[in-house]
C-alpha cells in the first residue's frame, strides 16, 4: 500500500492531475492500456469474489438458523437479492456512512459474543492442549490466502489517502490500523480454535449452540454484511459505468446542459446494470461449495496480484531510477514472493477442494 502511495505521488509530480488518481491510472502510466485493463479487471474480480463470499456467509448462517421446509442455502441468498439491488442503487459512498457504522456495531457485538462463547466452551469443556495440533505447515498456503483476503480493500488505498485532510499521516494511520486489526484477527482465531479444535468450521458461528445468544450473533453478522455488500460492489459499478460513459452511443443519453446530467433513460440503464450484477453474484454464490475454499482462492489469486505483484512492478517502473540497490531488491523480492504465493497458493487450494 505504501508503494502504491509513492507511485501516486511520483505520478502527480510528473504532470498536473485533474481529479483523483485511480489504481487503473497507475496501470496505464506504467504499461499503457493493457495495464489499465489488467488492473481494473483484477479489482473487479477481487471485489466480486468478496461480494460472493459475503452472500455465502449470509446464506449459510440463515440456512442454519431457519430450517424451513423447501428453503435451501441458495434460496436464502436469492431472498436477499431485492434488498441488495435497492442498496446498490445508492450512488454515493458517503451515503453509506450510517449503514457502515451500523454494520460495524453489529460486527463488534457479534465478535464479543463469539469470544464469550469460546471462553465458556474452553472452560466448561474437557479442554487440553494435547488435543490441539495448532500448527500444520502443509496448510500454510491455504491460511496465507485467507489472510491476504482478510485485509481486503486494497483497491481503495488511493481513494482513502486522497480523502484524508492530512495525507502525510496516512502511513502512520495505516500502520496503527493494520496492527490493531492483526491483533483482533489473531485473538479471535485463537479463542475459536481453543474452544473447538479441529472441529472448528470455516464459518465460526456455525459452531455456536442454538440458543438466543448465538441467534443474535448470527443475525447481527448477517445484517452487517447485508449493509456492507453494496460498498464491495461500488468499485465494480464505478469501473463498469466509467467505461460505459465513454462509449459514443451512450453519449446520446446525455443532456446538452452545462452539467451534462444523465437523463432518465441513462439512469435506468445504470440501475438495470447494477441489478444484473447483483443477480449474477447471487447465482455464483449459490454454486460455491465452501466458504473457506472460496476466500482462500480469491486471496491466493487476484488479491495476491493486486496487493504484491502490481504495486512492486509499478514502483520499479515509476521510481526505479531513483531507488537504491536495497530498495530495488525489496521491490523485486515482493514481486517474486507475490507471484510464487499466487501460483502455489492457488494450486494447493484447488487440489484441496
Automatic annotation (TrEMBL):
InterPro entries: AA_transpt_TM. Residues 2-350 form the Amino acid transporter transmembrane domain. Pfam families: Aa_trans. The keyword Transmembrane helix applies. GO terms for molecular function: L-amino acid transmembrane transporter activity. It is a multi-pass membrane protein. It is found in: Membrane. Keywords: Amino-acid transport, Membrane, Transmembrane, Transmembrane helix, Transport. This is Aromatic and neutral transporter 1.
Amino acid at each position: 500500500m505504501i508503494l502504491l502511495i509513492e507511485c501516486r505521488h511520483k505520478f502527480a509530480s510528473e504532470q498536473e492531475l485533474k481529479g483523483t488518481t485511480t489504481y487503473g491510472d497507475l496501470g496505464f502510466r506504467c504499461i499503457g492500456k493493457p495495464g489499465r485493463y489488467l488492473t481494473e479487471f483484477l479489482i473487479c474480480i477481487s471485489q466480486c469474489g468478496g461480494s460472493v463470499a459475503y452472500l455465502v456467509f449470509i446464506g449459510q448462517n440463515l440456512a442454519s438458523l431457519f430450517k424451513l421446509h423447501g428453503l435451501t442455502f441458495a434460496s436464502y441468498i436469492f431472498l436477499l437479492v431485492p434488498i441488495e439491488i435497492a442498496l446498490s442503487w445508492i450512488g454515493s459512498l458517503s451515503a453509506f456512512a450510517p449503514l457502515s457504522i451500523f454494520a460495524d456495531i453489529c460486527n463488534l457485538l457479534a465478535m464479543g459474543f463469539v469470544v464469550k462463547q469460546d471462553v465458556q466452551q474452553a472452560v466448561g469443556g474437557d479442554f487440553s492442549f494435547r488435543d490441539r495440533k495448532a500448527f500444520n505447515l502443509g496448510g500454510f498456503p491455504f491460511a496465507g490466502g485467507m489472510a491476504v483476503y482478510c485485509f481486503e480493500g486494497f483497491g481503495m488505498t488511493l481513494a482513502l489517502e486522497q480523502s484524508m485532510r492530512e495525507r502525510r499521516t496516512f502511513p502512520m494511520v495505516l500502520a496503527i490500523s493494520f496492527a490493531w486489526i492483526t491483533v483482533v484477527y489473531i485473538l479471535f482465531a485463537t479463542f475459536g480454535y481453543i474452544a473447538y479444535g479441529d472441529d472448528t468450521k470455516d464459518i465460526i458461528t456455525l459452531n455456536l449452540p442454538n440458543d438466543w445468544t448465538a441467534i443474535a450473533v448470527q443475525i447481527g453478522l448477517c445484517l452487517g454484511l447485508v449493509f456492507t455488500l453494496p460498498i464491495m460492489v461500488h468499485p465494480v459499478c464505478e469501473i463498469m459505468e466509467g467505461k460505459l460513459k465513454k462509449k459514443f452511443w451512450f453519449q446520446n443519453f446525455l443532456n446538452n446542459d452545462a452539467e451534462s446530467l444523465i437523463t432518465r433513460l441513462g439512469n435506468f440503464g445504470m440501475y438495470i446494470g447494477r441489478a444484473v450484477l447483483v443477480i449474477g453474484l447471487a447465482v455464483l454464490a449459490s454454486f460455491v461449495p465452501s466458504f473457506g475454499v472460496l476466500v482462500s482462492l480469491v486471496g491466493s489469486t487476484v488479491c495476491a496480484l493486486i496487493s504484491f505483484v502490481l504495486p512492486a512492478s509499478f514502483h520499479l517502473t515509476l521510481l526505479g531510477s531513483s531507488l537504491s540497490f536495497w530498495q530495488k531488491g525489496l521491490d523485486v523480492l515482493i514481486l517474486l514472493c507475490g507471484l510464487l504465493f499466487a501460483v502455489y497458493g492457488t494450486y494447493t487450494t484447488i487440489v484441496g477442494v
